[in-house]
Amino acid sequence: MQFKKEFLEKLQSAKKIVFFTGAGISAESGISTFRGKDGIWNKMKPEELANFDAFMRNPDLVWEWYQHRRDIIHKARPNAGHYAIAEFEKYLDVTVVTQNIDNLHRRAGSTKIFELHGNIERNYCIDCRTSYNAPQFELANKAPKCEKCGGLVRPDVVWFGEMLPQDEFREGEKAAEWSDICFVVGTSAVVYPAAYIPISAKQAGSYIVEINVEPTDMTRYADYSILGTAGEILPNIVDEMSRLKM
Ligand code: OAD
Ligand code: ZN
Which of 66, 86, 114, 122 is the most exposed place for a label (fewest CB within 10 A)? Predict the structure, then answer.
């Protein structure tokens, strides 16, 4: 694979890089994206599933949907894209800022990860905030009750209209601003505030490299836009990296 010379020079001198990732990086693991032709939001209505009012109206339905997604995610494996991102840690300082809740970056071995939209492996009580990890509730097909206060337990994911975890966002933004290269991988970059991360990187002078199967809202900010799948492109970039750092 041939990459732009300017990009290879950036790669050679880079000390810190950030990967801002979205559902597209997990597509090759068999997990559906949200938008686009097979997107989840074409088939399911986010307003009926991914917000707090929907949960209060019908907790069991929302819980069951997340159990279904958990099942898919547990059976899925990280793909070559996730593993390539983890491998970059051999060569330089790497931060992953992800919108994904699927835990696949961690399972692939990445060590510094900020999760902007939560993590499906965790749950918490809506009343007393006690947190519960998923295995306890693996078989529950109805929204479980908190052992301490009897409140409803919900997945620890960010729903529409909710705040992002502020520490994760702030730390992610800081890493993006300090980065020499910010890779924007497999995201439509239309959901805010998450999509401010690469914009902050750009404003702070980072070199923006987009990897996606199609152009997106981010393409006009990108210094280099590479069309292709994450699982195909990222291992090729790691190969370049290993040659450059030899
Ligand atoms: P989207 O579904 O909006 O976008 C997925 C992107 O991945 C699209 O731009 C695709 O072109 C691209 N894509 C698909 N397959 C790919 C592949 N193999 N390699 C590279 N790119 C690929 O997903 P997100 O941008 O992650 O929020 O969506 C952002 C947020 O919207 C999600 O975190 C979720 C959703 O509502 C919450 O749950 C809070
Ligand atoms: Zn409780």
Answer: 122
Amino acid at 147: E
- In order of their start, the domains of the chain are 1-31+78-117+164-246 (3.40.50.1220), 32-75+122-157 (3.30.1600.10)
Question: Does residue 105 have an active-site annotation?
Answer: no
Looking at all shown ligands, the one closest to residue 227's CA atom is: 1
Residue identifier of the C-alpha nearest atom 17 of ligand 1: 229
Mutation probe of ligand 1 site: the residue of 20, 29, 35 with most atoms within 8 A of C-beta: 35
Dist. CA 98–CA 27, nearest whole Å: 14
pLDDT tier at 11 (50, 70, 90 boundaries)? very high
Between CA 146 and CA 148 the distance in angstroms is 5
Ligand nearest to the CA of 188: 1
Taking Cα atoms as reference points, which of 207, 178, 236, 163 lies closest to residue 7? 207
Single-letter amino acid code for the residue at 68:
H
Sign of CA dihedral 49, 55, 58, 64: positive
Per-residue model confidence as pLDDT tens digits over 99-114: 999 999 999 999 999 9
Does 173 sit in the ligand 1 pocket, CB within 6 Å?
Answer: no
Instruction: Tell me the whole-structure pTM to 2 decimals.
Output: 0.97
Q: Is residue 186 classed exposed, middle or buried when 0-12, 13-18 and 19+ CB atoms within 10 A define those classes?
A: buried
Under 8 Å between Cβ of 36 and 27: no
Order of strands across the sheet that contains 93-98: 113-115, 93-98, 16-21, 181-185, 207-212, 224-227
